[in-house]
Design a protein that fits this description.
This protein has 90 residues and is an all-alpha fold. The protein contains three helices and no strands. It binds prephenic acid.
Amino acid sequence: MKKEIEDFRSQINKVDEALFQELIMRFDIVQEINQYKEVRDIPVESKMRESILLERANQLLEDTEFKEYIINVYIEIIKQSKKYQKNNRG
Ligand SMILES: O=C(O)C(=O)C[C@]1(C(=O)O)C=C[C@@H](O)C=C1
């Protein structure tokens, strides 16, 4: 029994490591887009872009029963992206 739960948790650890790496890559790009936009006086938030992202996510996640939960995680990622950008403007 203990062995089994350890196996699941070890699998989750691996997936989390991959997720963190991908999120670092996403935030690296967010850092760059923030600098690009700040120089050009473009606001942090783009509701138009966010609606495109969410539309795309809804399509890509069409077939999974986890869609609702993953969309909520995605919304939080975008929220944190905006927070990072606002905290890192001069
Ligand atoms: O596309 C942008 O302009 C971004 O700043 C990136 C991003 C995102 O994290 O995907 C963040 C804020 C915007 O409201 C839209 C999208």
